[in-house]
Design goal:
CATH class of chain C: Alpha Beta
Oligomer: heterotrimer
Radius of gyration of chain B: 27 Å
Helix content of chain B: 55-70%
Chains: A mainly alpha, B alpha+beta, C alpha/beta
Number of helices of chain B: 17
Strand order of the largest sheet of chain C: 5-4-3-6-7
Largest sheet of chain B: 6 strands, antiparallel
CATH topology of chain C: Glutaredoxin
Shape of chain C: elongated
Strand content of chain C: 15-25%
Helix content of chain C: 25-40%
CATH architecture of chain C: 3-Layer(aba) Sandwich
Number of strands of chain C: 7
Number of domains of chain C: 1
Distance between the termini of chain B: 70 Å
Number of strands of chain B: 10
Shape of chain B: globular
Chain lengths: 139, 666, 175
């Protein structure tokens, strides 16, 4: 087994982890921004952007090369002074709402935002009926 | 031959499930005709259920056996196993796939049915017959599913030389035991479902019904809690990015039954103690298992995109959907027709134990609705050709709207008395908890810049932890019932887990570094030095392993060895993380590839996280499960005691009658 | 207790069944369409990906309709679509290429082996242009109209039956 190891090592090195392309990742794919505040913003944004090549993973949680390129884009744009929501907007202008895990209120998503208040009202109503107005009464 | 034995046992068990349905249903009918009416059929139902459980268990054992010996003439073994795999993963391979996991599903279901048939004797026999009939009916559908569309014992005409192996992500000891645990929970809820249907059929929604159902429900709930906790920890260390909950559809599919079961557990408590919330409890009983089935459907049909998706097949999806339509649709129809005749029972004051429990129930149900909405919404828009994603930025704040009030009520509820109480009586406790929450709020916001949700989480966790212990105050601890200890442990567990979650999202430090051997990096209080990189080999993989030396605040060094693994059957790369655990958090190290643009000696990508108190999340989960176990044991012991007292009283009465009769004869 | 409320759960469940049933019937598509169709190409300038073809800049992509093909030497479906690209080029279609995350020598080897239908090839080393035009994978092919607007997006490899469709799109935009 020991003798086999160097050969295996070669095999591993010959097939990079990504196994998709030969180029190194984009400059900021795996490198943090120097400014911790900006990096924190980047991290928060990346956790809410969807990796387009993966099954339901954020670009912050993915090894896919394209996720790395997207991370690099996010970090470089932030470093260049763009605001996180502007970057999100830039991406949704290209990939639609699918790319963002943070749904925006729109014609296709308003029920997501209308239903919770309705639920809250319903919960209040149920509690009021069960507890407030019928309190202590027997059926 | 082994595979054929397993298949034959499965067919026999399916036939018995049919028999159980017929006997149970007929007996329920006959016994409904009036006092004392009974039929010999009723005597058959229980033995049939027990025999069925035995047969399926045998069938499942046969499946495990063909995996253990890597019988390559069985299609499922070829698709999911490999002779070179360690034994424990060969065994886990038996359920790490669609067919095997469905067999596990019916096995758990039939064993649960057998167990209630064997020992549950507290309810009127007619309700039990209806319950067993319902259990047989549900099982029958899943047998049909297995036998007609997912036969795990299918043979190949030409056995290949080697199997294809198991997904490397699943070759992990946590993954070997996480699905069965979750399944016991999922399927255990079928018992609550059958009880609810049985009680609806016979209109016997009584406190006795709640008391009889509760231990079964507790058992399923404990497994569900453990399964979710284990699954979350598995995702945390196996996926290699330090996340422990992604609001992924598959995770939500496990969370939804848990939310429903937790609500049911509490409403069953109200029904048992106060004979109230009858229709609501029945509804939750139906919903809880429905959520298990809906979750299974969402995962198996592949109609939602998930990071955990496996064994996706739309044809099977239609089969499960048909089962859902029959069972959930049928139960809800029955509910709509019958629940009107089941009165809601007692009403109550807001400041009372049951008042708090109603708030808990309403809030849990609302959270369930939110999770369901967020999970299904992308599917809904996709039907109109619009694709959206719903993730943490939606679930977290919207869920918090309902969870925060629920946690506040949860802190107070156990201090209140049943029936009628006043907040004035517990004003000192209220003031203490309120002051703690406020103090924590102020302290944390002074100490650091923390976002709103983690801040609320930290503060509520502090208050809740103390509040959950208050029910023990002023009581002789040795005389506190075990079930009360269980409640305290579970509530404290929620506080502990909440603290871990909030702390992880508030204080985590992340470092992505490229190091050459000998170089070091600082992450939070840890200094991490890369000592060397070596190639290593396992039974079915090779890896590059980094040897790290980490020291906490310049203390004694700990060795860590994260790996970038390459499996060859099937070919896939995974990242094996390495963890250094302390009571106050974990250092999490994952290895990437070789860093680009290196001149001279190569540098290696490392991802390092310092996650304060993250381990408390799962510790809390375990405490919640432990609380469930304590409550279960406490209830069962109390019940056994009560029954033996009743039996002794009865036998004394009989003795006395005998003596009297003897005296009269003389 | 209102009777209609008891039917509510069943109604919600029926809605779920209808939705799930409808979604099961549809073939599942995992493609993410670009929202940039109909918009002008964003500005970019890419260095040449190989020595014998010029690089690519957005200002070059005007004047006549053309195809913009996103490909890579490491992409297997790109090999499958090579004959179709050759047919399109033979029909006089202008094809510009963008090579994603690729080394010049790999691109050269790929083109030598599977044919080179491209007028110009830009090298997109960090997927920047790919992201800017809303492409989520390789291969993808965009129809660019004479004004430099993205007129159409074809996702995945071009199969024999797609050639006529692409020709028609090009024709529509040329007039």
């Amino acid at each position: 087994m020991k003798a086999l190891l160097p050969c295996m090592m070669l095999l591993i090195l010959a097939s990079p982890l990504a196994a998709q392309d030969g180029l190194p990742p984009a400059p900021y794919a795996n490198r943090q921004l120097d400014d911790p505040a900006l990096e924190a913003e980047a991290q928060e944004l990346m956790e809410t952007l969807r990796c387009l090549k993966c099954q339901s993973q954020s670009i912050a949680d993915s090894d896919a090369p394209m996720a790395g390129d997207m991370r690099s884009q996010v970090r470089m744009r932030l470093a260049a002074g763009e605001r996180p929501e502007a970057i999100r907007g830039w991406l949704t202008a290209r990939y639609g709402d699918y790319v963002s895990y943070k749904p925006q209120i729109g014609s296709a998503t308003w029920p997501l935002f209308a239903i919770p208040p309705a639920l809250l009202a319903l919960a209040g109503l149920v509690l009021w009926r069960r507890l407030g107005h019928g309190a202590g009464r027997r059926p | 031959m082994i595979a054929e034995l397993g298949l034959a046992a499965l067919w026999l068990a399916a036939a018995l499930a049919g028999l159980q349905l017929v006997c149970g249903a007929l007996a329920t009918r006959v016994m409904g005709h009036g006092d004392g009416a009974t039929t010999e059929l009723a005597l058959v139902t229980r033995p049939v259920a027990i025999l069925q459980g035995g047969l399926v268990a045998f069938s499942f054992a046969m499946l495990v056996w063909v995996f253990v010996i890597t019988d390559l003439s069985v299609k499922l073994v070829v698709a999911n196993s490999h002779a070179m795999k360690p034994l424990v993963f060969k065994i886990a391979g038996a359920w790490g796939n669609h067919e095997g996991s469905m067999l596990l599903w019916v096995t758990v279901m039939a064993l649960a049915g057998a167990l209630i048939a064997a020992i549950e004797r507290r309810l009127p026999e007619r309700t039990m017959q209806a319950t067993l009939a319902a259990q047989g009916f549900v099982a029958l559908g899943f047998y049909a599913f297995l036998l007609l569309s997912s036969n795990p014992f299918e043979r190949l005409p030409l056995p290949p030389a080697e199997g294809m192996g198991l997904n490397p992500l699943l070759q992990d000891i946590g993954m070997a035991f996480h699905p069965p645990t979750l399944y016991v929970g999922y399927v255990g809820l079928s018992v609550a479902f059958s009880f609810a249907v049985g009680a609806l059929l016979t209109r016997q929604v009584t406190p006795d019904f709640a008391r009889a159902m509760r231990p079964w429900l507790l058992g399923a709930w404990v497994f569900l809690t453990l399964g979710i906790t284990a699954g979350s920890y598995w995702a945390y260390y196996e996926l290699g990015w330090g996340g422990w909950w992604f609001w992924d559809p598959v995770e939500n599919a496990a969370l939804m039954p848990w939310l429903a079961a937790t609500a049911l557990l509490h409403s069953a408590g109200v029904l048992a103690a106060r004979d109230a919330l009858r229709a609501w409890t029945i509804m939750l009983g139906v919903v809880a298992f429905s959520m298990s089935m809906v979750g299974t459907f969402l995962v198996r049909s592949g109609i939602l995109t998930s990071v955990h998706a496996f064994a996706v097949d739309p044809r099977r999806g239609s089969f499960i959907l048909a089962l859902l339509a029959i069972y959930i649709g049928g139960a809800l129809l029955l509910f709509a027709l019958r629940a009107g005749t089941v009165s809601e029972g007692q009403r109550f004051a807001i400041a009372s134990r049951e008042g708090a429990l109603v708030v808990n129930n309403v809030m849990l149900s609302a959270v369930l609705a939110i999770v369901l909405l967020g999970t299904l919404y992308p599917l809904l828009t996709e039907a109109f050709d619009v694709r959206v994603s719903v993730g943490p930025p939606y679930f977290n704040p919207v869920g918090a709207v309902f969870v925060v009030p629920m946690l506040l009520v949860m802190a107070v509820g156990p201090l209140l008395r049943w029936r009628r109480d006043s907040l004035g009586r517990i004003s000192r406790e209220l003031a203490l908890v309120g002051a703690l929450i406020l103090a924590a709020l102020v302290l944390v916001s002074i100490l650091g810049e923390v976002e709103l949700l983690p801040l609320l989480g930290l503060a509520l966790a502090t208050g809740l932890a103390v509040a959950s212990l208050l029910p023990l105050r002023g009581r002789a601890l040795r005389r506190v019932p075990l079930a009360t200890w269980g409640m305290v442990a579970a509530h404290l567990g929620i506080a502990v887990a909440l603290f871990g979650m909030a702390s992880d999202s508030a204080f985590t430090r992340e470092r992505l570094v490229a190091l050459a051997p000998g170089q070091d990096a600082q992450v939070g209080p840890w200094r991490v030095t890369l000592e060397r990189i070596d190639p290593v080999a396992g039974p079915n993989w090779t890896a590059l392993q980094a040897t790290l030396r980490a020291s906490y605040n310049d203390g004694p060094p700990t060795a860590l060895a994260p790996q970038a693994r390459s499996f060859w059957a099937p070919a896939q790369q995974t990242s094996e993380t390495a963890l250094a655990t302390r009571w106050n958090g974990q250092l999490y190290a994952a290895m990437g590839g070789e860093a680009p643009g290196a001149t001279g000696s190569p540098r290696w990508q490392l991802r390092l996280w310092w996650k304060p108190f993250v381990i408390w999340i799962w510790l809390g989960g375990l405490m919640v499960a432990m609380g469930g176990v304590m409550a279960l044991v406490g209830r069962v012991l109390a019940d056994v005691k009560r029954r033996s007292v009743t039996r002794r009283a009865a036998s004394r009465r009989a003795d006395r009658a005998e003596v009297l009769a003897a005296g009269a004869n003389e | 207790m209102n009777r209609w409320r008891l039917w509510l759960p069943l109604a919600v469940f029926a809605g779920f069944l209808a939705l799930a049933g409808a979604m099961l019937m549809r073939p599942r598509d995992d493609v993410v369409a670009s929202a940039m169709v109909g918009q002008p190409l964003p500005d970019f300038t890419l260095r040449p990906a190989v020595t014998d073809r010029p690089g690519l800049a957005s200002r070059d992509l005007v004047g006549r309709p053309r195809l913009l093909n996103i490909f890579a030497s490491w992409c297997v479906p790109c090999i499958a679509e090579a004959p179709q690209l050759a047919r399109l080029a033979a029909r006089g279609v202008v094809i510009d290429g963008i090579a994603i995350r690729d080394r010049p020598e790999d691109v050269a080897r790929f083109l030598a082996r599977y044919g080179n239908p491209y007028r110009a090839i830009g090298a997109d080393d960090v997927s920047a242009v790919q992201l800017a035009i809303g492409s989520s994978g390789v291969p993808e092919t965009f129809v660019i109209d004479p004004a430099g607007r993205i007129a159409y997006q074809h996702i995945g490899e071009i199969r024999a039956e797609d050639v006529d469709k692409l020709l028609k799109k090009l024709e529509e935009d040329g007039t």
